[in-house]
């Protein structure tokens, strides 16, 4: 990782530890964009049960906010995050939903070799993580994800939409009520960027919801034949 990326990554790690306890207030309406976020979260949440498979992986799960919507669709779920504080909040959500028997929480870095290996998942959710990644991190994440999905598994992406006039890529300074201040990489997505990300990583995406704040897309890894532009039925 380049020095600049390492510095931002260290700040982001501190930031998510610091906001873990209050993280879901964004979805519940604490910020200026409250009604916008609340509306889009409900719309995205309503579509998730139809997308999540039986053996599901929730990467960079944070507090596991989306569990409340999708958990009836899966028989098992592995929730991965590197922040112990986020996982503590996630554990509370799992307990409140009464799904401890089918949920396992793992503390791991998305780029570490100890990525949940040896398991095959039918679906994976990436919620608001891709927008935080450098190009090298993005590539490494997609490679790791490809290794743990069964063929034809569903790739589910929820992230931030780029509003008109907003820069696509930013390094933001986020300040918390206690004065803590952190630099966070943030890339806003639009259809064009979604397609470019798909091409870079061999995923074909279909946007299912395009709100004012959030985008929801589902995708599948393309076969090498598809990637060369040949239809897979020619195999
Ligand atoms: C914006 S939150 C998203 C949480 C949740 N997916 C959601 O949609 O609400 C980003 C999460 O990614 C986690 N994260 C960031 N970089 C990570 C990494 N390299 N490995 C594992 N988790 C990471 C953070 O700890 C944080 O919980």
The CATH homologous superfamily is named Vaccinia Virus protein VP39
Quote the CATH topology: Rossmann fold
Widest beta sheet: strand line-up:
3-2-1-4-5-9-8
- The CATH architecture term is 3-Layer(aba) Sandwich
How much helicity do the residues have? 25-40%
Rg = 17 Å
User: How far do the termini sit from each other?
Assistant: 38 Å
Report the portion of residues in β strands: 25-35%
Order of helices and strands: HHHEHEHEEHEEEHEEH
CATH class: Alpha Beta
**Net shape:** globular
* Count of runs of 4 or more consecutive helical residues: 8
Average per-residue pLDDT, rounded, comes to: 89
Major β-sheet annotation: 7 strands, mixed
Count of domains: 1
Low-confidence stretches: 230-235
Oligomer: single chain
E-strand count: 9
Distinct bound molecules: S-adenosylmethionine
> Strand pairing plus helix content: what structural class?
alpha/beta
Your description of this structure?
The chain has one domain: Vaccinia Virus protein VP39 (Rossmann fold). Helix content is 34%, strand content 28%. The chain is globular and about 45 Å long. The chain contains eight helices and nine strands. The protein is an alpha/beta fold. The C terminus is likely disordered. Strands 3-2-1-4-5-9-8 form a seven-stranded mixed beta sheet, sandwiched between helices. The chain has a two-stranded antiparallel ribbon with strand order 6-7. Strand 2, helix 5 and strand 3 form a beta-alpha-beta unit. The site of S-adenosylmethionine (SAM) has 16 residues, from loops.
